[in-house]
């Protein structure tokens, strides 16, 4: 196996989540978390490839997520594939084409390809993640992030009892969008709230995944932010440590939550299997968030019980969008 990763790349582990981050120096200086190394892009026909070894066994019950963004412009088309002794699992290309669903192709049952992540159902050995980019010249600016954690936690941890407040982002409601968008655009609306400009409709158009017809692809969300000059990534969290770092730096972030009926007091949705909100602070036992499912702009700001919100966010998956100017 030929590695395109410098030897000083190390897993930055925190709690049960591990993360590998790679960027050029200029992009690394803009990202709020430590970046481990640069990448060496290898030519392959009319594309470039990168192989990222994971020097640990991935245990069963693990979720893995990957994102790649070139913040100086539109990120070239690219695709990730997870390789292990037990099999190979491709993710949807970014962007995808109508009918292009490698996640629907039967492969080894040791893991599965979801739309924008992998789930390991058995132990995976000799693991690497491979990225293929449809371009001939290495990008000058880039950020690649690979993170993994248990898919589900026994008990989500709570943040320490200290107030942390970032500037409140602008208020946007997906429920004010066109009828075809309003019930499906929480992800692009959350991205739009984290950006300095652009309407939710414009962001949604760029986030649309052609293969699934969905607006909620994690990879498309950060690609859209990158195309507007931001440094952006998908990162999995299993506690509040790194999110609190963001808030202390004045950076709100988007959190992917899910909850059943009656499990999140004050939410505009009764229940959801997947929804994005923007978190900008914690006050006592309350999480301050902008919820795009609010019916109007005045009701976008929400105050959620921290224990309920932690469960809705961190119990399963714990995905977040990290977007920095």
Q: What descriptors fit this protein?
A:
325 residues; alpha+beta; Jelly Rolls; Cathepsin B, Chain A; 2 domains; six-stranded antiparallel β-sheet; 18 strands; 32% strand; globular
Give a written overview of the molecule.
The relative contact order is 0.18. The chain starts with 11 loop residues before the first strand and ends with a strand. The protein is an alpha+beta fold. The chain has helices spanning about 25-30, 180, 185-195, 200-205, 220-225, 240-250, 305-315, and strands spanning about 10-15, 15-25, 40-45, 45-55, 60-70, 80-85, 85-90, 110-115, 120, 125-135, 145-150, 165, 230-235, 255-260, 270-285, 285-290, 300-305, 320-325. It folds into two domains: about 10-150, Sandwich (Jelly Rolls); about 165-325, Alpha-Beta Complex (Cathepsin B, Chain A). Helix content is about 15%, strand content about 30%. Strands 12, 13, 14, 15, 16, 17 and 18 form a seven-stranded antiparallel sheet that branches. Strands 1-2-11-5-9-8 form a six-stranded antiparallel sheet. A hairpin with a 2-residue loop joins strand 15 (about 270-285) and strand 16. Helix 3 (about 185-195) crosses helix 4 and helix 3 runs parallel beside helix 5. It is globular and about 55 Å long.
Give the biggest sheet: 7 strands, antiparallel
Q: Tell me the domain tally.
A: 2
CATH class of the largest domain: Alpha Beta
Question: In angstroms, what is the radius of gyration?
Answer: 19 Å
Number of strand segments: 18
- CATH architecture classification name of the largest domain: Alpha-Beta Complex
Q: Which percent range describes the beta-strand content?
A: 25-35%
Helix fraction bin:
10-25%
Q: How does the overall form come out from the CA principal axes? A: globular
In CATH, the homologous superfamily of the largest domain goes by the name Cysteine proteinases
Kindly report the CATH topology of the largest domain.
Cathepsin B, Chain A
Regarding quaternary structure, what we see is single chain
Helix/strand structural class: alpha+beta
Summed up, the helix count is: 7
Low-confidence stretches: none
